[in-house]
Design a protein that fits this description.
Elements: H1 2-20, E1 40-41, H2 54-64, E2 69-72, E3 75-81, E4 87-95, E5 98-107, E6 112-117, E7 120-125, E8 128-133, E9 141-144, E10 151-153, E11 156-160, E12 166-169, E13 177-180, E14 184-190, E15 193-198, E16 203-208, E17 214-216, E18 222-228, E19 231-238, E20 241-248, E21 253-258, E22 267-270, E23 274-279, E24 287-291, E25 298-299, E26 305-312, E27 315-321, E28 327-333, E29 339-343, E30 346-350
């Protein structure tokens, strides 16, 4: 009798919904995903191309460190200081595993997001985008008066304007347009999509450059993301503080990579394998290295505090800082394992 009553009630409810036009019955309900221990399912699974090359990951790592140095061919373009310790955009020639022929390209200049395209340097300087042709007596030309980031992709310049909106323009400065009106951060263009952070939760999103489609990737705040293949590494805000985390883009699950408490965002570079450099919470001069392929986390071999200025395959440039926050020198780590320390237009030592 109870079974019959329940069936009758259910039938009456269904009939009422159908007659009112306010209800519908789906053909099938989506299955709830199973949660593995230690993994968290993300809000939405993105539609990503399965291919993401090492060169693209290197470009992304450079974007994250706002590359203040850039090696192209036989030249190293870099933030430097003159004899009066004034910042300059300089150039060295790399010859016989050492640096020679230092040239000042722009004075009173702290250049970031250095990019070379078709014989022209593009960079950020005091919140402006400038271009500098690498010809004799060329002068910097301002392309945009207010910008926060800069990326060259597909022959176009992408940047955040002063309001944090993602914009695009031609290399000559023409055709400036806003692509994403909402304020965002860490915007890295990948084909016809852009990975970025936005919203009050500071979550990571994948957005289409055209059409408005988007996928939310993280529930909580996440910073400075690096994509390696189908994995996305970033510094996340957890209940225990900042931690290095990884999102599996194919499976849609997130995990904590390291329990080390971080003071700031992790840096990434490639040296035989991808590695993360971690700045420890509570100790300004302690940093650790964690291989992303599952190796053991270990203390850095040097003393002091380093920040990445440039990343390439097997090569990087570190800025060496003193405890007070002043740049002490720069170190070029070459693919053959050698190191060149430079500052003030001179080589200070190598080995």
């Amino acid at each position: 009798m109870k079974t019959y009553t329940r069936q009758l009630i259910a039938l009456l409810l269904l009939l009422a919904l159908l007659l009112s036009g306010c209800g519908s019955v789906p053909e099938s309900a989506p299955a709830e995903p199973e949660e593995d221990e230690g993994l968290v399912t993300v809000i939405e699974r993105p539609e990503l191309s399965p291919d993401f090359t090492r060169a693209e990951s290197v470009a992304m790592a450079n974007f994250l460190c706002a590359n203040r140095a850039l090696q192209e061919g036989e030249y190293l373009y870099t933030l430097e200081y003159d004899e009066q310790l004034q910042s300059v955009l300089g150039r060295y020639r790399v010859v016989d595993n050492t640096l020679r022929e230092f040239t000042v390209l722009a004075e009173n200049c702290v250049a970031s997001y250095l990019t070379l395209y078709d014989g022209v340097l593009y960079y950020l300087r005091d919140g402006r985008i400038e271009r500098l042709a690498l010809t004799e007596d060329a002068k910097p030309k301002v392309l945009c008066e207010s910008a926060k980031t800069l990326q060259l992709a597909g022959g176009k310049l992408y940047y955040l304007n002063g309001g944090g909106q993602l914009c695009r323009m031609e290399p000559d400065g023409s055709g400036q347009s806003v692509l994403i009106a909402a304020a965002c951060d860490y915007p890295f263009v990948m084909g016809d999509q852009v990975l970025l952070q936005k919203g009050e939760e500071h979550a990571l999103y994948l957005c289409a450059l055209e059409g408005g489609a988007e996928w939310r990737l993280t529930e909580g705040a996440a910073y400075a993301p690096l994509r390696v293949g189908q994995e996305l590494y970033y510094t996340a805000e957890t209940d225990a503080g900042k931690r290095l985390c990884c999102l599996d883009l194919a499976e849609g699950t997130e995990r904590i990579v390291s329990d080390t408490a971080l003071r700031g965002t992790a840096e990434f570079y490639y040296e035989g394998a991808w590695k993360a450099r971690l700045a420890l919470e509570g100790d300004l001069l302690r940093q650790r290295i964690l291989p992303l392929d599952g190796g053991e986390e270990e203390a850095c071999a040097y003393s002091g505090y380093h920040l990445l200025d440039h990343v390439s395959v097997g090569l990087r440039v570190d800025a060496v800082y003193e405890a007070g926050g002043r740049v002490n020198s720069f170190i070029l780590f070459a693919p053959d394992g050698s190191q060149i320390r430079y500052f003030g237009g001179k080589v200070l030592g190598q080995g």
